[in-house]
Amino acid sequence: xxxxxxxxxxxxxxxxxxxxxxxxxxxxxxxxxxxxxxxxxxxxxxxxxxxxxxxxxxxxxxxxxxxxxxxxxxxxxxxxxxxxxxxxxxxxxxxxxxxxxxxxxxxxxxxxxxxxxxxxxxxxxxxxxxxxxxxxxxxxxxxxxxxxxxxxxxxxxxxxxxxxxxxxxxxxxxxxxxxxxxxxxxxxxxxxxxxxxxxxxxxxxxxxxxxxxxxxxxxxxxxxxxxxxxxxxxxxxxxxxxxxxxxxxxxxxxxxxxxxxxxxxxxxxxxxxxxxxxxxxxxxxxxxxxxxxxxxxxxxxxxxxxxxxxxxxxxxxxxxxxxxxxxxxxxxxxxxxxxxxxxxxxxxxxx
Length: 351
Known about the structure:
This protein folds into two domains: 135 residues, Rossmann fold, CATH 3.40.50; 184 residues, Rossmann fold, CATH 3.40.50. The chain has eleven helices and 14 strands.
């Protein structure tokens, strides 16, 4: 990155955590920590005064939690926010609510082996701070970016039992996947989703998607059959593959080596779909850091699948879709809602 450094404001009620995050971020010469705040009320004043590019925000704080702060902040001062979350049930729940309230991504505090885990967490935080610093979050300016209303299943789809949709996303992906799928009718082809997230978070992500989608959405289990009307989210820390078994497609999960630094990996999903589903599949690659999924999407396209990618303008981080487009893996680009409409049109009955 050239030019001026990314200006960061650290918000956490713990003085120790503020110091650790400040020192950890300062290790990167492209980042400048311009200040810190012990609670949302101090943070609000510092945002106006210091004009940070990125905010790191503790999910659980006294006086006002991170979610409530975001709900008030984003319509007034939309800026990229990274949540710092505990790897607990409550931490995961609040983090998911924060993502729905406008946060672009999160990092998790180490639960075990704190010394090593802290270094990894700070490295991840530095990368994400730089990646999201240019994110366009202006959609929150008018208040919460509302998902489209759940559609009635009125559009007649052609027979879709042998069709599969595979979706991959990372940073900024929870909102992008929601925008993509909230327009799907209830009988949309079986759908599999890899969203880079830790265990526990993926289950809550699936539950939240289920509330806004006409399809049934849940976390995938070993041996699940892919059928129309069902969308399955890869569990955190497990790769998901689609395998053909006779005339049906099944889910296989495993805890093999990380691929592109991720488990689940979008490449692992897309490559399995290219191999076992081929031309009956459609692949979608959405916002995210790095290049996970790009090669797999190219393999899908070479196997005859339709392939779609999120465009730069609507991406929180134009990484994965950019690499895929540069490889020639993407047939069409657009924002997630437009891609969702395009997908539906692929499967509609022609008069």
